[in-house]
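TASK: fixed-backbone design
INPUT:
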């Protein structure tokens, strides 16, 4: 009797390795894509152009300002916004979302933006106001104050995702800092300004590694929060900070009982 043929095994498709968003290379770990990784991959694929600026100019606007903020997710320090009116006839090559650019490139671009912009302005909202208002409204306040400082005043705003409470025509663009040259310029100016502010506090609070993490969550930052508790410049309305503050209070209470 002829032997029965074995059923053919279906070949499994080899899944592509996840991409490391910092390098753009496949992940060696083979772990599934995280939301952060997927977002970074999307942002890298988007093209930053003057498409939205051209639409605003075609509608009659003369002074189109890009507006963006940085520091919303940080645990320490202010939220900072910038507003930039670029010269229509001068193209600054390399503009893109500040998160996708290394520090050296950001600072070079920031210098070129400051030299060739019709106007630019930076505004910061401190920790006390963030805790009072919440981070969303504090971010809107920072953006509104940055726009208010522009001279000449803009007649159209391009804003990353949100609407600023101002009586000025505006276009709100999802992932605007990766799509609009003006918003990208504002993102870069705000990021460079905020990073410089945070670096000034690093020698005051060296245990939190602020020069490296810029106030964002990192293993060293979180370890310092749990060991030392928050500083006066930490955002107490943010869960990781107030949880660390609660832990410190409990430890102090236990210490008092032992004395």
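OUTPUT:
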């Amino acid at each position: 009797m002829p032997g029965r043929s074995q059923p053919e095994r279906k070949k499994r498709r080899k899944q592509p390795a996840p991409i490391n968003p910092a390098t753009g290379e496949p992940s060696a770990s083979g772990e599934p894509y995280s939301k952060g990784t997927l977002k970074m991959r999307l942002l890298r694929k988007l093209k930053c152009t003057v498409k939205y600026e051209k639409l605003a100019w075609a509608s009659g606007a003369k002074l189109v300002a890009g507006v963006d903020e940085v520091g919303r997710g940080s645990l320490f320090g202010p939220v900072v916004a910038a507003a930039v009116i670029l010269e229509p006839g001068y193209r600054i090559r390399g503009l893109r979302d500040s998160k996708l650019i290394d520090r050296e490139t950001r600072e070079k671009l920031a210098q070129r933006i400051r030299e060739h912009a019709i106007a630019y302005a930076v505004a910061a909202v401190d920790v006390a106001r963030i805790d009072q208002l919440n981070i969303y409204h504090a971010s809107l306040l920072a953006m509104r104050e940055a726009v208010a400082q522009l001279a000449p005043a803009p007649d159209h705003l391009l804003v990353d995702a949100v609407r600023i409470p101002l009586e000025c025509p505006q276009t709100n663009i999802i992932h605007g800092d990766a799509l609009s040259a003006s918003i990208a310029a504002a993102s870069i100016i705000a990021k460079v300004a905020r990073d410089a502010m945070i670096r000034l506090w690093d020698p005051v609070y060296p245990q939190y590694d602020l020069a490296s993490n810029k106030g964002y969550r990192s293993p060293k930052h979180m370890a310092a929060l749990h060991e030392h508790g928050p500083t006066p410049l930490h955002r107490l309305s943010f869960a990781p900070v107030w949880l660390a503050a609660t832990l410190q209070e409990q430890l102090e209470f236990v210490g008092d009982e032992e004395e």
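COMMENT: Strands lie at 64-70, 79-86, 117-125, 156-160, 170-173.
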